[in-house]
Amino acid sequence: DTVIDAHDVSKIYNRETIPVYAVNNVHLHIEKGEFTALVGPSGSGKTTLLNLIGGLDKPDNGNVFINDLDITKLSANELIDFRLKNIGFVFQSFNLIPVLTAKENVEFIMLLQGVKKSIRDARVKQLFRQIEMDDKVDIRPAQLSGGQQQRVAVARALASKPKFVLADEPTANLDSKSASNLLDIMAKLNKEEHITFLFSTHDQRVIERARRVITLVDGRIVSDTAAVSTKHEK
Ligand code: ADP
Ligand code: ADP
Fold it and tell me: Which of 138, 140, 148 to mutate to test ligand 2, by most ligand atoms within 8 A of the CB atom?
């Protein structure tokens, strides 16, 4: 099952002055159940590529297929709806809503989607068990550690049962113990629930945990650890 198929995608900034090829003719194919790290130096295009795949930004060239739907053809409103239903996002700076409790942050998207209370409650309970924070549901983000906030952000990303989760430098603001703990949770969700993760990172310890590593330099994919093995499998 292919979940992400970026086809010949480019994003060019400053077209009128000195063009920057932030993403340059990228082809990327991600199957359901992958646990893939996107790596590369600062400015190599990781955030731009994740934004294109997540429909937060549109490419100047190419197409992005999510489950066979070309999201570059969607209107702004259709994209908002598509993202809510299909893609989970985790950000470097957690981005939880400070006035809401951990539970309310996770529940929010389900409220927007009109999911009824009994189902919301069951889903929230399951998610807090999965992030190992059953005892923190009623606590606000400021009272949680960074690692705990990011685990809540992962639960929030999963609340609407997305097709995959995009995480842009999810461990960048965490100490190494919390980063390792977050990776444990993500890896467990990948293994046991078959959640597909695509995450960018600089952190060597995080890279080591990935099953596939794609390296970007100057907006181009320069290496992909899956390239060799998939050829052999076919
Ligand atoms: P990374 O996430 O790997 O650090 P980015 O995707 O943030 O890389 O950036 C890729 C390139 O695109 C960089 O040269 C960056 O300066 C440029 N860039 C990113 N966003 C913008 C923007 N909004 N306007 C102009 N240039 C940008
Ligand atoms: P984690 O490994 O999940 O990041 P920590 O070991 O950092 O958790 O935190 C342990 C406890 O300390 C947590 O229960 C949390 O409530 C509390 N704590 C940590 N950092 C903060 C903080 N910045 N503000 C409030 N409480 C914090």
Answer: 148
